[in-house]
Design goal:
The chain is of the alpha+beta class and 97 residues long. It has a single domain, classed as 2-Layer Sandwich (Arylsulfatase, C-terminal domain). Helices cover 20% and strands 42% of the residues. It contains one helix and six strands; from the N terminus they run E-E-E-E-E-E-H. The strands form two sheets. Strands 1-2-3-4 form a four-stranded antiparallel sheet, covered by helices on one side. A hairpin with a 6-residue loop joins strand 1 and strand 2. The longest helix is centred in the last third of the chain and has 19 residues. The protein is globular. The two termini are 22 Å apart.
């Protein structure tokens, strides 16, 4: 599965959410609402989620760490191009299911 397009909408609201990304795979499938967030240790990518009760659950997420890294790297590369900023990335941590 190849990433064939990444689109970034930057947020200029002074908050922790810096941008929202859409990632297209194989020119056939797109995932919207992937967030670039500024955390305590740097920027990270948050997959689309919804609130279920008191917690947020991912709606879509990669199953493998390598896939998460490829997606994050492609998003950060495009964010750098669009925003003109190089985000300091947080260390990758496995997500809970």
């Amino acid at each position: 599965m190849q990433i064939t397009d990444v689109r970034i909408r930057t947020m200029d609201n002074g908050g922790k959410m810096k941008a929202v990304a859409s990632v297209t795979f194989d020119d056939e499938f797109v995932v919207h609402d992937i967030k670039i967030v500024e955390g305590d240790k740097g920027y990270f990518v948050a997959m689309p989620n919804k609130k279920v009760g008191e917690v947020y659950k991912d709606v879509a997420h990669p199953l493998k760490a390598e896939t998460r890294k490829r997606i994050s790297d492609a998003i950060f590369e495009k964010y750098e191009e669009v925003a003109g900023a190089i985000p300091v990335k947080e260390p990758e941590e496995p997500s809970g299911f």
